[in-house]
Design brief:
The complex is a heterodimer of chains A (680) and B (316).
Chain A: H1 4-24, H2 29-56, E1 62-68, E2 75-80, H3 82-105, H4 115-134, H5 138-156, H6 163-194, H7 208-226, H8 235-241, H9 244-254, H10 256-270, H11 275-297, H12 302-330, H13 333-368, H14 379-382, H15 384-397, H16 404-419, H17 425-457, H18 464-467, H19 474-492, H20 495-509, H21 514-517, E3 528-530, E4 533-535, H22 537-559, E5 564-567, H23 585-588, H24 590-595, H25 597-600, E6 603-609, E7 619-625, H26 629-652, H27 658-679
Antiparallel strand pairs in A: 1-2, 3-4, 6-7
Chain B: H1 2-32, H2 42-52, E1 55-58, H3 63-81, H4 98-118, H5 122-153, H6 158-167, H7 175-191, H8 210-213, H9 219-244, H10 256-284, H11 293-314
Classes of the chains: A mainly alpha (680), B mainly alpha (316).
Amino acid sequence: MIDTVFLIRLIVGLYIAAALTALFFFRREKYANIIPNAICILASVTGITAALAFLLGHSDRLVIFKFDVPAPFVSIQMQLDSLSAIFLLTLSILVLCVSIYSIGYLTHYYQKRNVGLFNFLYSTFILSMLFVFTAGNMVFFFIVWEIMSLTSYFLVVFESDHKENQKAGTIYIVMMHVGAAVLLMAFMLLYSYTGSFDIFANHGALPGLVKNIVFVLLLIGFGTKAGIIPLHIWLPYAHPAAASNVSALMSGIMIKTAIYGLIRFVAGYLGIHSLWWGIAILVLGMVSTVLGVAYALMEHNIKRLLAYHSIENIGIILIGLGVSFIAFAQGNMVLFSLALMASLFHTFNHAVFKGGLFLGAGSIQYSTHTKNIEELGGLIKVMPYTSVFMLFFSLAICAIVPFNGFVSEWMTYQSLFMNIQPGYSGLNVVTIFSAAALAIAGALALACFVKLYGISFLGLPRSEKSKTAKEVPIVMRAGMAVLAGICLVIGLFPFLITRLLDGVSSGIGGTSIFDSLKGKLSFVYYPMKISDSSIMPVGAVILIAAAVIMILVFARFIGGKLKTRKYNTWDCGYEALNSRMQYSATGFSKPIRIVFRILYRPGRVLKVEEGASPYYPVSMKYDVSTQKVFEKYMYYPLAGFFKRFSRRLKFIIQTGSVHTYLLYIFLAILALMFYNSITK
Amino acid sequence: MSSLLYIIFQIIVFILLAPLVNGIIKKIKALTQKRKGAPLLQLYFDIFKLLKKDVVVSDTTSWIFRATPYIVLSTALAGAVLVPVIICNSHTGFVGDAILLAYLLALGRFFMTLSGLDAGSTFGGMGSSREVMISALIEPSLIITIFTAGLIAKSTSVFDMMSTAAGNGGIFSNPIYIFLFLTVFIIILAETSRIPVDDPATHLELTMVHEAMILEYSGRHLAMMELAASVKQLIYISLLVNMFLPSVDVTVGGGLLPTVAVSLLVYIAKVIGTAIIVAVAEVSTVKLKLFSVPNLAALSFILAFIGFVQYFVIGR
């Protein structure tokens, strides 16, 4: 029997050790890189063991440790239940791969930056996320939540000599603190009604209005972290600024802390109180899904493109979560379990493939020193391994059949399908539009990843940088290989994960649906079956493989041995085809830019310098731009309003006279004494 | 064992029938233009001949270009197995439902569009870029159609949808099916590069979508791509005819062999009928401007949505 409590304490110790050794060795870069990462690998393996041991064995909540601090309200309390354990598992798997990768990736910081400091922040960041998933007290939760935001802020601005990184960091930290402030309001409101900061204590019934207010506050607070549209603006700035291993963690698991928070506090603590909560989440998810992928299509910075895809996938997760909340409010516990499972499954899958995609983007940047896909091309020849892993991740994120993204999206589709009931027709229209949104997002994601993969890996190199690129070191490949393998294995055998997820959904909703998911075939868990529709990815793969063999045999039988001749690409007889004549990423996304012009509001500038004749220009410059609609029409006006407001306020309240300020202090004390005398 | 026989039966029917559909459409188009036209079986001859030919591959390309024909054809054939041509027992329904079918075909599309970008020519990229746009526009109506037909059948499995529809007479008994029929018809025109969306007969860069993507292919690879395109077309046509037109219900009949034969004949008749309608639609419309395709997609979306709303009015 594995002692889970001991293992979790060990993990905490290991991450602290990793952070301290990183600081200790900060003058010796090699040690500062390898030792903390090795300790993180050890800790994450322990984490995977502990999470699996807990999920397969226990079902009761474990208290890992609990210190009562002399300060009021606070107790440092760490606990583990199945919801925490599933997030711990996701975190540990991602940290394992990212830490393996980092050993190779961080070599490009040698002689340039302080690797020890980087790894100190990196380990602290992981530890803070571990605490967020296991905190048992709201004040402790809030403290580690803040540590998570701050360490990730320092990691975002780590390469602080670039001006745009500073801007990214500022946007990030402002958004995080707006969210944190709202979150704090929710916690204080809960305290004032229940008198306790304990996350698990049973508090009796809260008034309905308070529940609604707390829900809205939690949605905004966690929504900023998750990057729900329109609170998403920090994501496209922060991800390109951060180092790729940090982006992988931030996008793979940090934004999921918000999903954890929503499930923990809304479904677990508040108990879903009214139908509109679920509908609100469903609508937000739908909007985030479509707009996220639509904006991703217009990006040519590989990491910003991936950041927008995180918004899309958070949308898909929220669609599942919204359906589960609707079902909870209606008392349909089977659907609740299914939809929650779909949502958590997609959370896991997204961590795996998006983590992998960011690592792949990091590899591209490592060997070409550019994030702009317009400068890439032909990388499949110079980076054969990375290109295969990236192909796996791209297929997984597009939800294409034998990969893990498909199974969770299929479960989301099935939850939407089951959510359509006779009677609630307004809800039905929202549901069918969500399904349509999921469909168009899937097709646009395919467009986006064909663009990303086709432009950067295929064709001719578009610049010297991509011509001279080399394959990345073996440790970096190993990190990506593990994630790519997980994508395929989970896609083929989804029951490996769903059996773990069943404990979570039955823990909250009380209904286990795992047995009904199993099909009636003699294979152990196959096929996966929901309301008479079933899928069997292995079966599909066997069919495809059989078809390939059949084609090979048949073609050989008719045509004999295949003879291949190499020749130039068809160039209309021009015979001077060069890399600039290929399709560019801008050109590739142009049809979609025109079709959805209402969304992008594209602008273009054509500068022609004419030569001897207008038909032979000396030079031409063509610029395409799309507008950031949310920033332009929402955030800039808002910022402008606050600026004007505070400037005006300056002359009224902040006069600069000490006497007035003393008066303020006096009035404040009077008011507090007055308030105290009434309430006592 | 019966599953294996069923899979072989499905694949044989699809491979034998799919090129014929193209032949019929081409023949009718030729006849309306007062031409004699190519023989009905021309595509079979083409594929047979191309299979014997060498392959010319651009030296810019990678393994993706060479793997694509196999992946595209095998996903199309795997998809064909999931769409029953005669509605007997669901032998392969456990492998996947209609949603899996859609994402299985997306695997083929992913590789086909990638191969367009692989050779580094402008044509391929143009075709890929247009293809992904058209498929993105058409996808929502496909999902709504699956959901609505699925609501009537209470499952998203292709077999359940077909047997429910066949049981109650398709478009002749239930008006929802009329809207879904029209939606799927538009989807067929868009997904199989037919005239209002794409012109399969020209190689003019202003119009080409599918042809531009496969421009670099030759010999055996081209044969596979052509066969895959026609199999994919037959998948959509089979969905259309078996889901919305009345079928012979095999489960009821007497002897196995006669009923299979009769229902297969009915199926072939329905497919030929649909091919004729597609050909008539092709000759009687003009190719739309590429940026008018969204209007067509919107039309199909609206039709599908009306069908969905009607489900709650009619309630079955």
